[in-house]
Amino acid sequence: MDPMPSTFAWLAVDAEQRRRMLEAVDQFRDETTIDDLGIGGIRDAFSDTLFPGTSTLHTRLRYVLFIPWLMQEAAKRATVAEMAQRYHDLERDFIGALERGTGDDEPGIIGRRAGKMLQRVPSVLYSGMLAQWGILERGLTSREFFTRIEASRRLDAEAPRAEDGGLGTERLLDGLDPELPAPPEHLLRSADFRLTPEEVTYLKEAITRTNPGTLLARLVQERPMDWTDSATAPAAPWAPEINSLLHTDADEELRTLLDRAERFSLQVHGANLLYNLLLAEATSTDPERFRDDRVAHYRERLQTWADETASSRPFGSQDFLELGQMMAARRRNYTDRTRAFLEHWCAESRTPHTVAESPSARELIIRRERLVKQGRARLRPGNLKALNAWSGASGTARLHFRWANVTTLLQDLYDGEARA
């Protein structure tokens, strides 16, 4: 009899695939961000284009330095096996170093609750950022890094000495950025998230060098007016204080992208609100189910959405052309069915105040959910189990393309710059 396959077999894939899977799992933990209508790939393409390397799993910026520093520390061991074991232990022991170096209420410590049982280690969560920002060679695993270190030592030991006393062979590149700042003293004893001036300079240069022309690169170089702390961060990436940083001519492409992202966010928000209105109507026979009238709640929100949409420029054919090109550039799946759904929805929303009662708009949403979720579709006739599992809100948050996470990372950078 064949052994039962492991439920966690996906853990064997590479770090970046694991990070994306973990990010997808997190979407289901937040009822406001669930992707019921199947536009997550487009959402992520906008996010990757505006803020390359970022993820909703990221907590604090200094982790992009902690990870290579811990790799270097582990590489002090003699063999690859010993290095790998040491690195495994360091990622978990480092939780204690951060707890000793920060206050009890310090946010962003990965594994504070799990401790040494931590499975979602920082090196997996930050793998994409490390590669995208040029801190770690793309595709390089920690084991490959340790293998290169061991090979370099062997070559050094076997190499003949040059006349000047140095080694006569070329050194192997270990895969870490040679400009990486040195770790602070006593890193393993006590650590915190405060960036030093040298680290700030390094990260600003790395981000702008590897991701020129992006909104992330602009924001690491220039802080928006009146952004003094996390409480005063702009509400969205298209906020006026951010747009004011962009030059009319030099940043035309970035301004256009940001405008398209804002209008796409608005369009999709309306579709998700109508989806929730349909769910509210389908569950309205139980008036005691929710604390408020969910039908009235979503009708009111759709009215507010319609007012904003009516004053916004429609999402047109040129937008869809550029959207397709962005998806191709980011190697994201963009099916004909998804494109057709969005085109039909955007046509419906040209008269936004009629959407809530429009039979064609309602049918469009129902068909789309069935296509995306199939047997799990809440609006599928007879699927009472799925319908009754609705919490009262599903995918109702406006898309801001990882802005909440990005502002936390930028705040760490700005605070470090201020300390200089």
Give a short summary of the structure.
The chain is an all-alpha fold and 420 residues long. It has helices at residues 15-27, 40-50, 63-74, 80-101, 122-125, 127-132, 142-158, 197-210, 215-221, 240-243, 252-282, 294-310, 317-329, 336-348, 359-373, 384-388, 403-419. Helix content is 53%, strand content 0%.
Outline the fold blueprint:
Layout: H1 15-27, H2 40-50, H3 63-74, H4 80-101, H5 122-125, H6 127-132, H7 142-158, H8 197-210, H9 215-221, H10 240-243, H11 252-282, H12 294-310, H13 317-329, H14 336-348, H15 359-373, H16 384-388, H17 403-419
User: In this structure, how is the largest beta sheet organized?
Assistant: none
Distance between the termini: 65 Å
β content, as a range? Answer: under 5%
What share of the residues lie within helices?
Answer: 40-55%
Q: Which structural category fits the helices and strands?
A: mainly alpha
Gyration radius over CA: 25 Å
Number of strands: 0
Sequence of secondary-structure elements? HHHHHHHHHHHHHHHHH
